[in-house]
Amino acid sequence: MPNTEDYFHLDSRGFPLSRGSAYDEWLEVRRRSVSATDATKLLKKSGAPSSQREKLVESKLGLRTDFHFSAYDLGIEREPVIAELVRELYPEEFFETNDFLYHANNPRHVATPDLVSFDSVCEIKVSTQPLSRIRGRYMDQLQWQMYVLDRPLALFVVENRYDEELEFEWVHADPKRIQDLVVAADCLLADIDQREVHIRTQPEVPREVPASEPLVVEEIQPRVSIAAPSYQIRTDSPDVFEIETMRRALTLYCEGYDSDSIAEKIGFESRDVVANLGRSIFTLGADLIDPNAPNFMNYWSEEEH
User: Fold this and answer.
1) Alpha carbons 105 and 281: distance in angstroms, whole number
2) Torsion 168-173-176-178 (CA) sign
3) DSSP of 9-61, one letter per residue?
4) Among candidate residues 124, 116, 125, 118, the one with its CA nearest the CA of residue 96
5) Less crowded by CB within 10 Å, the N or C end of the chain?
6) Shortest CA distance to 171 belongs to which of 128, 212, 140?
7) pLDDT in tens, 205-248
8) What does the pLDDT look like over 79-137, one tens digit per residue?
9) Judging by beta carbons within 10 Å of its beta carbon (0-12, 13-18, 19+), is residue 40 exposed, middle or buried?
10) pTM of the predicted model over 0.85
11) What DSSP state is assigned to residue 62?
12) Diameter of the chain measured on Cα atoms
């Protein structure tokens, strides 16, 4: 096993950089680097560039905002509990919970696995889908973690969001895929650096000041009260929500809850929430979801990565 102390990023005080004690620094290093989460957006399974690559570049340059979903909060809340269960179930691995940012030989290749042992890492996810359905979405994240920490094995742990049932899978390092990811990461970083220089060196365009014109004061019109739209609830579908259920779903939607959170609160499947909100908000003549579609219940990212 390599001396892991040599692979810690250090904070401004010279201590190992921790997400918990130096969160802003941790975020800034990750912004300038390629993390295990970023690795899932580099390549398709075929090895071709992922369609998410450009959005990742824009995010690194601060040109787009990454949205936060309430589902993330549940994962953060459950992670320490699941980590303790993993340690109890795999005592021979001597897993330790991890909050530190590691780096490979290239200090801009970074990772923060949830658990670390002598010869493996562990990544924990909370999901509404079983492990078999989401594994393809996270395989590159696991490969990147094994590469950064020089470990041959990764334990992938998925907890079902609804019944807290745990699934486990051991994943071996794939040298060919890791090499492809490393090359793609270096190309991404070079692209980011080049664009950053271009942005910094762009001359500021002087703002044209329009010629003075006489000030026109318009008469203020009285505010017109606009009645709230009356949402049409279709009744020709067997799974249409009752009016009270729809009202609650719409209220939660307006408060910023995502479809998974709304589904959990009103006791329906997420796909039912999407279908019924589509009918109500857009007065659709058909569902947004087609259960007979070829890729129904499949994540696009499993094909893309």
Assistant:
1) 52
2) positive
3) -B-TTSSBPBTTT-HHHHHHHHHTSB-HHHHTTTB-TTSSBPTTHHHHHHHHT
4) 116
5) N
6) 140
7) 566 655 555 555 455 454 443 343 333 433 444 455 677 777 78
8) 999 999 999 999 999 999 999 999 999 999 999 999 999 999 999 999 999 999 999 99
9) buried
10) no
11) T
12) 82
Residue that has been written with the tokens 């530190």 in this structure:
100
- Token reading at 161: 């969001």
Token pair in block for residue 214: 């006489």
Q: Which residues contact 78 (CB under 8 A, 6 or more apart)?
A: 124, 126, 159
The residue type of 22 is A
Scanning the structure block, which residue is given the tokens 């021979």? 92
Contact criterion met (CB below 8 Å) for 34 and 184: no
Q: How far apart are CA 234 and CA 237, in angstroms?
A: 7
What are the b/e assignments for 169-198, b being 16+ CB within 10 Å?
A: eebebbeebbebbbebbeebbebbeeeeee
Q: How far apart are CA 102 and CA 251, in angstroms?
A: 43
**What angle (nearest 5°) sits at the alpha carbon of residue 204, between those of residues 199 and 210?**
140
Asked if residue 109 lies in contact with residue 184, where contact means CB atoms within 8 angstroms, the answer is no
